[in-house]
Amino acid sequence: RIKKLLTDYLADAKVKIFSVAVTGQAAKAAVEYVITGNYSDSVMIFADQALKVMQSIPGTMQQELSVESGTPEIHVTVDRDKMSALGLTLDNVGFAMQMTYQGNNSLKYTESNYEYDINIRADKAYREQVEDVGNLSFINNKGETIFLSQFADISFGTGPNRLERFNRNSSVTIRTQVLGTSPGKVSQEFRNRVEKMQKPKGISLAVTGDMQSMSDSMRVMTGALLLSIVLIYLSLVVLYNNWIDPFAILFSIPLAILGAFLALALTNTSLSVYGMLGLVMLVGLVGKNAILLVDFTNDAIKEGKEINEALIQAVRIRTRPILMTALSTIIGMLPVALSKGSGAELRNGMAWVIIGGMLLSTFLTLIVVPVMYKIFHMGHGRKGYRKSLDIERLMVE
Q1: Where in the chain is the domain with CATH 1.20.1640.10?
Q2: What are the start and end residues of each CATH 3.30.70.1440 domain in the chain?
Q3: CATH 3.30.70.1440 describes domain 2-69+164-207
Q4: Window from 8-17, 83-92, 100-109, 197-206 with minimum mean pLDDT
Q5: Count of Cβ atoms closer than 10 Å to residue 286 Cβ
């Protein structure tokens, strides 16, 4: 809608809409793929087909290729046998053509501590027509003048406006903006459709740009999430001096992750790098609630209570502080989850992850953690660090 309004208001302007990158700034493209191959012609043909596929995906806009075909150009095909018979080498011909049309800027001009390039090449009037190219002359090893038209086929045609290379192969980049859906869904749909196409030999497809950066960041954050869980478990083992209680505490983490993904699904929000950061934060937040239950249960058992009685008392007494801390976190995240503006959708994902994880984990932790604590201690015969004694009966005896 904004693009249409601006286009109508500014008649001669080209209006483009850009999505927000991970950094919160405008991204060149929400989804970006690079198509590579051995030959530029086959790469360009497949890129045109892939562009049509991208245009057919709902939610995409401003689909484009980094290389445009149809640019007028002059094609020169050298006959190497004729060239050799005329006493010329490919190096000499290539150097002369480069000097004529591209120029040479090895000479410099210096003035007032500033250095300027001096580009030497043929005048524009002598390099625009096919006839001008054919009249390009060379001096062979016998000192004779040879024209390019004597050993090369020269024709007028069209081609790409630029040549791109990716990993030393010919490449074309396909880009699109996304509206009304997530870049991840568009990227996956595009890849699924392209995989069904018949690709020429040597053609490959790879994600680049912001999607690649996000994918790399997601792998790093996934490793950080797993590392945080391991470190929390090892820390709890040291604090509790056993391997069982930390396991019961860790069962609150899957509940939080489940709640986080449910919140993302209900709000139609994709999991971003900020969302992964929220998961790492969530591990520590929900682990705290389980620690309160297990720690209180251990203290009650030390006082002589049975496990069932200690667990019931822990849930009854610790529910209120657990709910208070959880609600304070959830309420504090609501403004972030509902915020608007540049880059807000990325921060929204982190907030919804924390809100959903805290909501589900807070209530299920009060059920699951006591159950797991009971299961883990059933085989150990742990009824208390000391049994309750009837003092009056002992005194009578």
Answers
A1: 214-378
A2: 2-69+164-207
A3: yes
A4: 8-17
A5: 29
Of residues 360, 368, 358, the one with CA closest to residue 333:
358
Do the bridges between strand 114-120 and strand 104-111 make them parallel or antiparallel, or are there none, so unpaired? antiparallel
Residue-averaged pLDDT of the chain: 80
Please say if the pLDDT value at position 379 is more than 80.
no
User: Which of 32-46, 64-78, 109-123, 226-240 has the lowest average pLDDT?
Assistant: 64-78
Q: Which residue has the higher pLDDT, 23 or 97?
A: 97
Out of 33-37, 45-49, 217-221, pick the least confident: 217-221
Of 162, 156, 146, 130, residue with least CA distance to 79: 146
Whole-number pLDDT of residue 28: 64
Task: Give me 269's structure tokens.
Answer: 């929000």
Q: How many angstroms separate the CA atoms of 43 and 35, rounded?
A: 7
Q: In the chain, which residues fall in CATH 3.30.2090.10? A: 71-159
Distance (Å, whole) CA 208 – CA 116: 36
Assigned fold of 71-159: 3.30.2090
The CATH architecture annotation of domain 214-378 reads: Up-down Bundle (1.20)
CA 390 from chain centre, in angstroms, equals 66
Please answer whether residues 314 and 300 qualify as being in contact, where contact means their C-beta atoms are separated by less than 8 angstroms.
yes
From CA 270, how far away is CA 215, in angstroms rounded? 13
Instruction: Give me the count of residues in the chain.
Output: 397
How many angstroms separate the CA atoms of 376 and 311, rounded? 13
Under the banding of pLDDT at 50, 70 and 90, the label for residue 382 is: very low
